[in-house]
Each structure stands twice: as C-alpha cells, then as structure tokens.
Amino acid sequence: MTRRLNVVDLTGRVAVVTGGAQGIGLAVARRLLSSGAGVAIWDIDQAAMTGALAELAPLGRVEALLCDQSQIEAVDRAAIETERALGPVDLLVNNAGIAGPAATVVDYDPAAWRQIVDIDLNGVFYCCRRLVPGMIARNYGRIVNVASVAGKEGNPNAAAYSAAKAGVLALTKSLGKELAGHDIAVNALTPSPARTRILEQLTEAQVTYMLGKVPRGRFVEVEEAAAMVAFMLSDENSFTTGATFDLSGGRATY
Ligand code: NAD
C-alpha cells in the first residue's frame, strides 16, 4: 500500500544538524528544509559537505560549516556563524558520531576510546552548552540527540561507542529535566543499523550480529529516521521530554 507521509511545519525555524553532510544527518537536513526550516549542517568532512550543499541548496536556506564537534572552540565558532547567517537557533540535532574500531574492552586502544567519547558524548555537551542559553532566552527549543540501541544494551567489541551513547541518553534525561519548565523538549533517538558510511567502521560480524537482533529483519532507512526526528522537532511534540524514541524495528522495547 502507498505510504502517506505527514509533513510537519517548521516554517521560520532555524536548525543545526551536526554530521549533516551524509547519512542520517543529510536525510534529516533534507527533511527539515522541505518542512520550511533554515538549516546549518556542521561536519568535518569537507568533500561530503560540498556534495550535500549542492543537493540541499535548491530546497531552502542552508549553510554548511566545517566544525569538529570534539573541539569546544570550533563549536562556539560554528554557532556564531550560524546565528549570523540564519538567526537564533531553535532546533538542534546532535547527530554527528563515529563508531570507532572494533575491539574488546581489554584490548581497546585508550586513545581511540577517548576520541570516541570526545566526539560522540562530549561533542553533544559542547553543542548543548552553546545553543541552549538562546533557547532559554526565547523560551523555545527542540533538541534531538541521536544515540543508538548500543547505548541501551551495550554491543560487544564496541564498548566505547556503547558507553558514549549511554552517556548521551543520560545527558538527554538530565537536560530534559533541567529545561522542563520551558517550552524546550530534549529527546533521544535510538536507531538500529542504517546503511550509512559509519558501518564501514564495523566488521562484517558486528553488522550481522546487530541486524540479526532486529525483529523487522532489515536496516532502518535514513528517511525513516528523518521522519521521526522531524516529528520530535515539531510543535506536535509539545509534552514529551527527556525521553528516548525507539527506532529499533522491535529490538528494544524498554
Ligand atoms: P555517517 O558516518 O554517514 O555520518 C556521520 C557524520 O558525522 C559524517 O558526516 C561525519 O563526517 C560526521 N562527523 C564525524 N565526526 C565528527 C566530528 N568530530 N564533528 C563533526 N562531524 C563529525 O553515519 P550515520 O549512520 O549517518 O550516523 C549518524 C548518527 O547516527 C551517529 O551518531 C551514529 O552513531 C548514529 N547511529 C547510526 C546507526 C547506523 O547503523 N548507521 C545506528 C544507530 C545510531
């Protein structure tokens, strides 16, 4: 049967999508632009950003900014440039992330561990600490933190990633409570595997393991993730905060 898709109205909103140059982030940026928002994508991959900008520019007001979100000063600079180009930021999608190398905890390279936590967890904190004050001042905001089912269950040979994503879930709960007195919703998304470039960082055995746990028996499409994010960022989502939106195809029911 043909699917009927709702289009949320984000006219006049300004969004930041980290890691927006490809994969889930690019699908989110596409969807937000189509819903009327101005969008800034922040990413470290210049080549992918050039391609993304060419695709996104015809859809609306879009900025592409180089930003390594593990660097606090880079986040502050990207925020200033975004505000200058598009105006105050209403919507934040903390989506950028890496998976890192596969290894057991005992064998994990400490430098790789720190890099994963710096990007996947600390970067989310840096983006929130810079953009939330403006949301509080305007008493409006929507934040989506893209975590992972790994953060709920812990995946073998991916402890750094799992721990960082668990941290993102806890950050989401804390920030949601801190901002609950405002019209600011902070929620997390926990996708199961999607066919994006991040999978190249995993072994075939890891992908097979993860996909085997998905009752729907397939990858989630990036457009399916984007549709849920668009709802989470919309005014339709006016009450739920500090929560985790499950996108695991039936894997995680808690
Ligand atoms: P992807 O590799 O296609 O996209 C990730 C983007 O983040 C890339 O454009 C990359 O350049 C960018 N990035 C990496 N490090 C960065 C940094 N330091 N600063 C700024 N940008 C940086 O992967 P994806 O699947 O689209 O991943 C998006 C999010 O979804 C990630 O947080 C990932 O952990 C999460 N996720 C993905 C899957 C999956 O199977 N694809 C499953 C669950 C969760």
From TrEMBL:
Keyword presence, Oxidoreductase: yes
Transmembrane segments: none
Gene3D superfamilies (alphabetical): NAD(P)-binding Rossmann-like Domain
Domain of life: Bacteria
Alphabetically ordered keywords of this record: Oxidoreductase
UniProt EC number: 1.1.1.100
GO molecular function, one term: 3-oxoacyl-[acyl-carrier-protein] reductase (NADPH) activity
Family: Belongs to the short-chain dehydrogenases/reductases (SDR) family.
Protein name: 3-oxoacyl-[acyl-carrier protein] reductase
UniProt organism field: Mesorhizobium shonense
